[in-house]
């Protein structure tokens, strides 16, 4: 059975303010370009109690299709999906009230540094409870554009053997979400 692609609401300032106030964790996907990856990311997001997923409305490939829902195995029902027209502008606004984190295969910081760095950011911002946070993930071939990474407070990588350049974006998302869940 095919599902009709749902209408995704644009992100509002009220959404962002609520997520910051409630210390919610979310994902920003930039040019992920595959509905199977979108579904797998949504499944991992629901598993690790991620509240929201923001996608760029200009992305043509990663859509909320029947395939994405099938691969998510119920995960879509546990996350709020919103769209933005400009991911760098979204991160610039978001960084005023939540911690913004990016991934990049060439980052200096490693995923193992994530907890320490975020705890320090929390102290700097004088956040008592769990901070609101968004993790930006990009295209497997091109990563995140510089304009997007520049809006993030810190950038991390997953070290590997170097046999291949990077993990599948859904695999990387699951590893990062596990680390964030442990905070």
Notes on the structure:
This protein has 183 residues and is α/β, with parallel strands linked by helices. It has one domain: SPOUT methyltransferase, trefoil knot domain (Alpha/beta knot, 3-Layer(aba) Sandwich). The chain has an eight-stranded parallel β-sheet, with helices on both faces. The longest helix is centred in the N-terminal third of the chain and has 13 residues. It is globular, with a radius of gyration of 15 Å.
The CATH class, by name, is: Alpha Beta
Largest sheet: 8 strands, parallel
SSE pattern, N- to C-terminal: EHEHEHEHEEHEHEH
Fraction of residues in H or I helices = 25-40%
Strand order of the largest sheet: 1-4-3-2-7-5-8-6
Oligomer designation: single chain
Work out the helix count: 7
Q: Which class do the helix and strand fractions yield? A: alpha/beta
CATH architecture: 3-Layer(aba) Sandwich
Jot down its keywords.
7 helices; alpha/beta; globular; single chain; Alpha/beta knot; 183 residues; 8-stranded parallel sheet
What's the topology here?
Layout: E1 9-10, H1 13-21, E2 25-29, H2 35-47, E3 52-56, H3 66-72, E4 80-84, H4 87-94, E5 99-103, E6 109-110, H5 114-124, E7 133-137, H6 146-149, E8 154-157, H7 169-181
Parallel strand pairs: 1-4, 2-3, 2-7, 3-4, 5-7, 5-8, 6-8
Helix pairs in contact: 2-3, 2-7
Short description:
This protein is an alpha/beta fold and 183 residues long.
């Amino acid at each position: 059975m095919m599902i009709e692609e749902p209408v995704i609401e644009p992100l509002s300032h009220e959404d962002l303010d609520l997520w910051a106030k409630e210390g919610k964790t979310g994902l920003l996907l930039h040019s992920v370009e595959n509905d199977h990856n979108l579904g797998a990311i949504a499944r991992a997001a629901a598993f690790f109690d991620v509240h929201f997923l923001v996608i760029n409305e200009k992305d043509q490939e990663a859509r909320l299709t029947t395939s994405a829902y099938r691969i998510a195995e119920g995960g879509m029902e546990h996350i709020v999906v919103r769209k933005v027209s400009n991911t760098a502008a979204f991160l610039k606004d978001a960084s005023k009230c939540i911690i913004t984190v990016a991934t990049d295969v060439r980052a200096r910081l490693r995923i193992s540094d994530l907890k320490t760095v975020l705890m320090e950011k929390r102290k700097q911002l004088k956040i008592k409870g769990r901070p609101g946070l968004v993790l930006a993930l990009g295209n497997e071939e091109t990563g995140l554009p510089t304009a997007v990474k520049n809006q993030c407070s810190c950038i991390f990588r997953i070290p590997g053997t170097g046999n291949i350049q990077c993990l599948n974006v859904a695999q990387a998302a699951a590893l990062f979400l596990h680390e964030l869940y442990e905070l």
